[in-house]
Amino acid sequence: MYNKMWHQTQEALNSLLDKESQKLVEQEKNPVYIFQMLATFYIKYVQIFRNLENVYDQIVHPQKRLLIRKILDGTMGRILELKNDMVELELSEFHYFDDILQDLKLAPQQLDIPIPKYFLKEKIEVIRERKKILAQILADSGLDKLAIKSMPFEEAIKLIQVAERARQGRLRALFMKQIYLQEYRAKQARLLGEKVADAGAAALRIQKVWRGFCQSKRTEREREEEMIFLGMNPPPLFDQVSAAIMQAEKVNLLRSAVQLRHEEGYREALVTIKNHLQQTEGPDIKESLRDQIRQWFIECRNLTGSFPEYPNVEDGGSAMIFSNKTPEQVIEDILASQEEEEKNKKKGKKAQKEEKKKVVKEKPKVKVSRSEMEEEEEWKMSRSAFLPSMKEGSDVYKDTWMNKDESQNFPQDYDEELIKKEKRKEVEAEIRVQVDELMRQELKNLKLAVNKEIELPVRAGKKGKKVSVRTWGGVGGRPLQDGHPRASWGTSSRPWTIESLFKELVEEGLLIQARKVNLSDYIGEYSYLGTTLRHVSIEPMPSLLDVRQLITLYGILPLGSAAVHEKAPLVKSLLLAGPSGVGKKMLVHTICTETGANLFNLSAANIAGKYPGKNGLQMMLHMVFKVARQLQPSVVWIEDTEKTFYKKVPNNEKMNDPKRLKKQLPKILKLLKPDDRILIVGTTQRPFDAELQSFCRAYQKIILVPRPDYASRYVLWKQIIQRNGGVLTKALNISCLAKVTDGFTQGNIVRVVKGVLTDRRIRQQIQKPLTPAEFIPLIAGMNPVYKEEEECFKNWYAKTPLGRKRVLALTVGGREKETEKGKKKGKKERKKNV
């Protein structure tokens, strides 16, 4: 099944690569057409990525998995590149593909980018060990104990008395109710007396009630069946896990065990087969190489009159000479090179004279026509860093796996012939190094014996001055040379190791334990009117699932894969801005959970009073980024990051010095390289209190996290009630709750649900179903996000670099002004060149 899925996905990928290679040559002017093309490629790559991720997780053949992993990483990187191109084209982080999805007959849910399971599977043991060490350090230092609030003795006695009196009052009320009911029944019996009952009338009344009850139940059942048939209500046992899903999970666990077993067998086979090749084929390879090189010596001697120079080790040795060539072809190349050298010597003098004459002449003025200027304005798809690896993987698939007969390999174990083919090249390369050393000595002996040549010893190059380097110094773990003002800092005799630095950061509260929160816990719904609103020049607010997708693209995928992080568009810092309660902190913990990253807390409130002074701050940053590099991936979180860039520090916060990191943060970002899987994430609920210019300079990507819309609130109420033990019935109108809570955040909704669904209320649901009226009192006591506050965030975002470009592009003539500026700049540059 999964082999068939892989073949189908690979065919789709091959056709997509062919189309994209054609589009690389073409040039376009229409931005709408360009965006449609990029969006179509993006959507198709997402579909391929979803299939490949599923295939890689389930296939057990070790050699197939290596190839699929290479293509999977390439597809992941290409998605990030296309996303970057769309952002530069539309000048917006959020895109809407309603019309394209309709043409491709896809649902919005199929745009959801999955998180590859191998991010955590491949380092699960490392993550467990790290969590165990972190928990042990917290337990030893006493930081894991919850603070217990003390209570005075008199207040404790008073609390017990109140609870006991309430219990006695409830019992007394129950007892009095029973007495009242007994007296009422006795009174009714005395009033009615001993009246003789009519048996027929009694039977008729019982029949009437019973038939009415049966008919109402039948009508209710038929109505429920009709609603299920129409898809308006879920079928019975919809929320329960089916037996098929449980069986599928068991099969997945078995597949994982088989994958591990096959991987171990494959690694062992690599060693044993290589050793076997060295013993059986090694002597023959060695002898054939020596004969081939000796023949080259003799042929060169016969043709040129002297022995050739042996290539250096840096140039590849004899492999450079005999790479896919016969000895005759090598000799022809040598003769051709000698003839070219003689011709170049003769032409050298003439060429120098002609160049001098050209320099004396004046440069002619270059005239640029309108057609050339229009060609410069045409958009052309940028070169991809991932397409070559994807094409290489596709070629390997075509050559090896496309038409391979695997009828004899039912368990899907490793292919021995493929390993031999791969290892034979390694064995030949290793033997060639040994043969080169022997043949160099043999060539020297031949030269001495035949030509009586004496080789002069090669002069050793001048050695550079050694610079003593200290590991403590620059920000982010960069070494400092002697004489630097901070070179003497941190030269104590204390043995600084990663373990000791890790422990110190944990004890200081700078390295914290991330909460286990999956990205799927960030609940929301898609925006189905984004394209329609943009057609009428209205910028829609992003939906919660749009935010979730950006977190996946900018945070999770680059941190999870080292191969993707090195080549993909580099995102070093990320800012999450939005009102309180929209889930910014949750998203930070989600990035750490999904990638297994360490979480460092450099918030202004957390570093206040720690490592005081300039040297102390540099020491703290050095420790944090040294550990972050060694134990990558890592996330550096700055909560309430607007305090670091305050326009004016409030009087009550001046003692904490919240702007300590303001000057250091841009320096840290410059030191981060593509191979450093470190992401700086800032969260803020008051971005307008910060200096905009320095704020936007520090954060490369800015994501505005909105309050939930109606669709997201509907899904939120439904899922959060169920997750907290609630039962959805007809008495509970979810649509009503979603409308009433317009303006309230996800945090407000979660607190309301937890406040209503206590243990006692959950047990009462069978007799007393939940109703919307129970949630209203708690909602009324909370403050929503008003439209004025939302407008403040919109206006602030419009002042950011990307927001300004977007506003300028939407205004009438905005794009024309930009193109005119570009033309003027182009004319000035051409004049300078002339």
Mean pLDDT: 81
Rg computed from alpha carbons, rounded to a whole number of angstroms: 37 Å
Name the shape in a single word: elongated
Q: Do you know the CATH architecture of the domain at 710-784?
A: Orthogonal Bundle
The CATH topology of the domain at 710-784 is given as: Helicase, Ruva Protein, domain 3
**Uncertain stretches:** 356-376, 453-493, 814-819, 821-834
Q: Report how far the terminal alpha carbons are from each other.
A: 64 Å
- Strand runs, count: 10
- Widest beta sheet: strand line-up: 5-7-8-9-6-10
Structural class: mainly alpha
What's the helical proportion of residues? Answer: 55-70%
Strand content: under 5%
- Total of helices: 32
CATH class of the domain at 710-784: Mainly Alpha
Largest sheet: 6 strands, mixed
List the helices and strands and how they pair.
Blueprint: H1 2-25, E1 27-28, H2 31-58, H3 62-90, H4 98-104, H5 118-121, H6 124-141, H7 153-192, H8 199-230, H9 243-280, H10 282-304, H11 318-321, H12 327-360, H13 370-377, E2 379-380, H14 387-401, H15 416-451, E3 469-470, E4 480-481, H16 498-507, E5 511-512, H17 530-535, H18 544-560, H19 562-567, E6 573-577, H20 584-595, E7 598-601, H21 604-607, H22 613-630, E8 634-639, H23 664-671, E9 678-684, H24 692-698, E10 701-704, H25 710-723, H26 734-740, H27 746-756, H28 759-763, H29 776-780, H30 787-798, H31 801-810, H32 814-833
Parallel strand pairs: 6-9, 6-10, 7-8, 8-9
Antiparallel strand pairs: 1-2, 3-4, 5-7
